[in-house]
Inverse folding.
């Protein structure tokens, strides 16, 4: 069941770097069940689009302008509670990654995106969590110990 795909996954992409947005778009177009419904370049736009469009998945970079990805995720949680959030970032700082994972169901390192992005979206769309393999090897799972 781990490889089961979820049909009709509507995706909001929030990435301020054009080359990364193009990479993400080309990667997502390989999967017929994925539809990019909106691309934005800052966190404020991400929040507004998520509230209006209620996507299945919001892909957020942490380092977005105007409103960083973590703050945007806080608002998206309130305004689009059924939207699964996946961070796509190269941030390795354990505190920042943990803050992101406290709000999201997925975390994909940009350097692992070619291998992990599609699997992460499928997992989160099914209600599961996903953390890039390299992050999991470092002990980052998204679950806080002794909270």
């Amino acid at each position: 069941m781990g490889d089961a795909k979820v049909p009709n996954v509507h995706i909001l992409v929030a990435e301020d770097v054009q080359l990364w947005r193009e990479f993400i778009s080309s990667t997502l177009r390989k999967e017929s069940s994925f539809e990019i419904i909106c691309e934005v370049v800052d966190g404020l736009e991400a929040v507004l689009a998520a509230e209006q469009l209620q996507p299945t998945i919001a892909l957020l970079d942490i380092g977005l302008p105007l409103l960083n990805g973590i703050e945007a995720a806080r608002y998206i949680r309130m305004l689009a509670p059924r939207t699964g959030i996946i961070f796509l970032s190269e941030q390795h700082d354990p505190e920042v990654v943990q803050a992101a994972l406290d709000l999201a169901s997925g975390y994909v390192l940009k350097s692992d995106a070619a291998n992990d992005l599609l699997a992460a979206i499928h997992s989160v769309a099914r209600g599961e969590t996903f953390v890039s393999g390299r992050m999991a090897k470092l002990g980052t799972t998204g679950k806080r110990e002794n909270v």
